[in-house]
Amino acid sequence: MKKLWGGRFTKTAAQWVDDFGASIHFDQQLVEEDIEGSIAHVTMLGECGILPKEDVETIKKGLTKLLEKAKNGELSFSVAYEDIHLNIEKMLIDEIGPVGGKLHTGRSRNDQVATDMHLYLRKRVMEIIELIRQLQRVLVEKAEQHIETLIPGYTHLQRAQPISFAHHLMAYVWMFERDRERFTESLKRINKSPLGAGALAGTTFPIDRHLTAKLLSFDSIYENSLDAVSDRDFIIEFLSHSSMLMMHLSRFCEELILWSSEEFKFIEIDDTFATGSSIMPQKKNPDMAELIRGKTGRVYGHLIALLTVMKGLPLAYNKDMQEDKEGMFDTVQTVIGSLKIFAGMIETMTVRVDVMEKATKQDFSNATELADYLAKKGVPFREAHEIVGKLVLTCLERGIFLMDLPLDVYRQASPLFEEDIYEALDPHNAVNRRTSAGGTGFTEVKKAIEKVKQMLEA
Ligand code: ARG
């Protein structure tokens, strides 16, 4: 098959060689962006007097028709034309005749593909930002229902201090807030036009790069033509922000998996987000949470892969860069899927308030309360720590908790202990008293929820 670039060739490559070089089986995902970019380019060629108006109109009509077909899934692509750009150009020529060959005036596939990627990512990143916001809303709503629900707080996965369940949920809301911020901030680099950089050096045609940028709603243009065609930072950044987001989702999934186990029983994942076992009739598995945790690995992989692809490349375009696409497409799909599934899982899960609260009463996570109690009465904290540590030991020997220890034992340990220690030991009070900024005290948690709700409106 004759190539669109075949002029200087006397021999053709074997089919299997062409197959290896082709990207059409994955870059066809860029079809709409590719045609939109071409419409802007040819419009500009007309405005700048580079192509006659009639030609521009014919080309635009042809492209518009192809765009419609693309949206209806009516285009069929061919490996013979290597990639999305040449496939569309070939289809255009088939559609409107040789005048279609004028579309590529003053342009190269190098600035074309970069433009497509910018357009593609802009749309998907905006979708991801919105999905993060929706997930935050779901979490804040859950948090509002559980401000006074207690759950053990952990460090080293050992019971540490009781906290408000809402506070725990809100910790993730803030992580997702940073994710949303990062993606939003990255838009200013994604939303830059490489179009008009040509193959690498610009062009001799009197093009107007600002016009194509405007037509495609880019905020600005790349200042340097070499940089414009060889920059893939914006994709690496996207993969990096996606990795961070997936890491947050994955940590949360890990907690859902733990919490839904027989050992914790803090939550129950809804039947609609769980699966059974083919052999064990009693099983209900948190597959969706496990999968999100698992899929985090492939997103990290895509990040490392592209960093590695880019690390040794001389300027400007190199074919290696065709490898930027599959990881990006897969990441977009993985992140969007994970965000949707995760929000659904949180929305529908059952929170076992009774089990969580019971857990906060059957441990020593109120020991810090006693140490603080003594410290507030003037005992140096380090000494208070020691005294309470001994009391914990006494309890362990007797198989009881601090709440069950009689007052006279406390008073032998320190005469500063009074009847009101039992109030201090109550986990509900322990949580409520942590009113330092950003702490788990109920008033602080309420404040945080209000603040976030306002941020999510904005
Ligand atoms: N399919 C190519 C890619 O994705 C398009 C750019 C090709 N440019 C070139 N000079 N071969 O990178």
From TrEMBL:
Record's GO cellular component terms: cytosol
Organism (species): Anoxybacillus pushchinoensis
Gene name of the record: argH
Domain Argininosuccinate lyase C-terminal: 364-432
GO terms assigned for molecular function: argininosuccinate lyase activity
HAMAP family linked to this entry: Arg_succ_lyase
Taxonomy, superkingdom: Bacteria
Protein name (record): Argininosuccinate lyase
Gene3D superfamilies: Fumarase/aspartase (C-terminal domain), Fumarase/aspartase (Central domain), Fumarase/aspartase (N-terminal domain)
Alphabetized InterPro entries for the sequence: Arg_succ_lyase_C, Argininosuccinate_lyase, Fumarase/histidase_N, Fumarate_lyase_CS, Fumarate_lyase_fam, Fumarate_lyase_N, L-Aspartase-like
